[in-house]
Amino acid sequence: MATAAAASVVVVFDFDKTIIEWDSDDWVITKLGAADAFNRLRPTMRWNSLMDRMMGELHAQGRLADDIRECLRSAPLDAHVLSAIRTASALGYMCTAATMDGCMPYADMCSWFLARSSGS
What we know:
By secondary structure, the chain is mainly alpha-helical. 61% of the residues lie in helices and 12% in strands. A 3-stranded mixed sheet has the order 1-2-3. It is elongated, with a radius of gyration of 16 Å.
């Protein structure tokens, strides 16, 4: 049962290279087969523009958002971080994951970890 103090605390974890043991952008691009285009374009583009272009490349190859979600589900997790998140959640702390675009909503993070936990 969450205490009043725990309910007022938010625990934020960095996503890339912390929760997952890889940069998630690089993971998706590599695993979905667009690394050659990525490596060719990387020296010529800023990161956000590059990632927009890569998402376009993946879409042109017929890849869907579900393919990206499934790819991220296969990313290696740091067992110690996963354990820390489970412990903090069990103690009633609200946990969230920091991303370049802000924070992953709590409900999305919980769903993501529950899905990952069932396979671990």
